[in-house]
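Exercise 7. Predict the joint structure of the components listed below.
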Amino acid sequence: MSKVEFNKETGPREVFCGLTSIVWLHRRMPDAFFLVVGSRTCAHLIQSAAGVMIFAEPRFGTAILEEKDLAGLADAHEELDRVVNDLIARRPEIKTLFLVGSCPSEVIKLDLATVAEKLNKRFLGQVRFVNYSGSGIETTFTQGEDGALKALIPLMESSNEEKLLLVGTLANNVEDRFKKIFRNLGISNIESFPPRQSTELPKIGKNTKVLLTQPYLSDTVRDLKHRGCEIISAPFPLGIEGSTKWFLAAAKAFKISELKVHEIISPLINRAKLALESHKEILKGKRLFLLPESQLEISLARFLHNECEMDLIEVGTPYLNKDLMKEEINLLPDNTKIVEGQHVEKQLDRVRESNPDLVVCGMGLANPLEAEGISTKWSIEMVFSPIHGIDQAADLAGLFSKPLRRNQILTSKTLVTH
Amino acid sequence: MELTLWTYEGPPHVGAMRIASSMKDIHYVLHAPQGDTYADLLFTMIERRGQRPPVTYTTFQARDLGGDTAELVKKNIKEAVERFKPKTLLVGESCTAELIQDQPGALAKGMGFDMPIVNLELPAYSKKENWGASETFYQLTRTLLKEKVSSSEKISPLRWKKLGRRPKVNILGPSLLGFRCRDDVIEIQRILSEQGIDTNVVAPLGASPDDIERLIDAEINICLYKEIAEASCEWLKRNFGMEYTNTIPIGIKNTIEFINEVHNKLDLPLTNKEELEHKSKLPWYSKSVDSNYLTGKRVFIFGDGTHAIAAAKIAKEELGFEVVGLGTYSREMARQVRATAKELNVEALITNNYLEVEDAMKKAAPELVLGTQMERHSAKRLGIPCSVISTPMHVQDVPARYSPQMGWEGANVIFDDWVHPLMMGLEEHLIDMFKHDFEFVDGHQSHLGHTATKTKDFINSDDKKNNNPKEGIIWTESGRAELTKVPFFVRGKVKTNTEKYAILRGILEISDETLYDAKAYFS
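Solution:
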């Protein structure tokens, strides 16, 4: 392991909660509905984070707790029953309904597991009910996906068939690319989790080889291990280096030679390097500060340093699973400063002191930092854009070079005005 | 429990944030979990604010719940006070913290600070954003002025005469995330100063706690947005005798009435009465022949109370529209909206469910929708032109240019903003008229990319949804052909009316003649 500096920080945090992940999960599984059992704050959070007003009728909603629901839990269960009945009558096409716990439902100890169990019996053969918590007292942002996937594992049937299982939500086009490359490598049985239809859950067992596409799935990985799955240890497929090592690790697990991998992906690497050049020109030598939010920060730091030659000031992450991130941390330059957790005020002090060229942060902080003359990139875009794989390496770099290029354009004086 | 897919208003603590963020030298410690920090983006993204809201979130976690969350609250309060040195501290809790009952306000008061502390108790499970904003502004005003209550004489609106200076007023209610507040304040101040009236304090927007303490230097209060300021105005009236205005100066008539009301209260002679009619271009633009086609346009209105009521009056009296629907999501304003609706002979729609609003919109078959960002989306789906008149809003509703809703310039802005989408409607009509010409390219759309429902889809849409058309009625070939000739923006209404007529007469097949019979029947 490289000599990386680990720090922990506690204090006020400026991050989304796990409910936010509903925004991409519901798009991944168009036959599923996400029902948050929470407060008006939960509803307002999701619609604000997602800017969902464009949807006619979204496939997520909130059963908003009211005063009378807090008075007696028995009534709250009944009320939830009523809301679910109405919802299913209104949306008969829904195949899986996720009951999503929130901060208030966790605090009043609303037992969504029991509710889900009862509903499963009643709607047997029509709708499946799954529950998990996306509450901000337990989860940060992407951890919501971890919870949702973990909740689906008990529904996955067992099979000893050998397969490659890609775990973590990917953009559909990226997923198709990956599958094509794996088929070219000679791996034919490939499935994804989460699947594109909530009812088409992959079967798993001791011959399932799990390849993670996202770094924030600690609990899911643990449960997949319990089901006998083999977890392939690899960095994450962000950038050329990460993706190459990721393909190599998968190939090794399937006893496919390195030579074969290089043969297939070399042309991809060559064109990706070419595409990366113009971005590297802008990013090279620029100093980067990553604030914690998506847990993608360490992989992004590795990519932006190793392939785009940026200097790393500080790499924040809301949560660090050293085991899962082992391969990534090994690729980081010596003396990289990783900070787990947050004290947002102290961290912003460090941002100002270190005078970075680019800060990766949440939407609440971006404009205030820009107003102070510091260029920013919103971290939420990382989870909404197709950024995985060799073919997307230049697009990924582009997310970071764009704000810098824009800044250059706006501050340069090329037009003579009279 | 209420199933909510989308909500017009946020929780009450977001209302409190609107007050805190609008002001200077204030800090708000909010006992809340980390997810609640999303609210910052409302200010930094929608309002494009270059400063973070002055809010410290305690961001307690599950593991803190077993321990001492009260200590965590105190630690955050201490750090926030040291770092931000506010002149007044707001302390409160969001929905989750309300359940664990740490009483952060009481904790803060026990910490020995010199500054005034406002303990905000905003019931998250029964109240909403605007109420929270109103309550926060009220509690803040009360806290900062209560000591002056007993010592003060009642403030006479005529005091300025004795003091030998121009009359002074406060403008209360404008806040961040309010609709065009930034520009309304400038417009109203301009109007008042033209009348020889000085502005003492604008609050909460841009005010500091010191300014709040100076509120009683004015003679009367201008209550600009009732949703935010009425409770405070009422308290100032009860305790200091300060009178406040009731008229919201949106539209020409209301602006003139507002000026009259202010003059009457201050007993200040109104010397330029005749001029007022000509301060805005709206009356002439509305009178000019080009506007003839606006007559009787069917308009559907939904928004917060202040803007919905004002819009109804302008639509009917100043633009000659027909109001076919009026509603609000603010329960606090329901009574007033109902009263206005009654005058207009429509039933008021009071709801927080946007799907109900969309249904009502569909049924009313309007030619123009005036609503929030959500109604803009609904109207777009239905192919109806729309103008946004109220929060909740989108980043595009905070325009770079000066564009108030109130006063003379506000009326100009309103004329343009409401009529331009209709121009687009006229343009669509022309496209419809000429669509059989060989020059016409299929799929041609107006410059605004307006997505009106295609004739064919429209006629077939109902059949697709339910295989038996309404009550077994069939549209014949000639009936369908005739319907395609009706301009798109009234086609829905014509179709419904014709079917209604057919049912009434027991007609089973609608031909072109039935269409004309129905037209004659309903005209």
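Discussion. Residues 442-468 of chain B have pLDDT under 50 and may be disordered.
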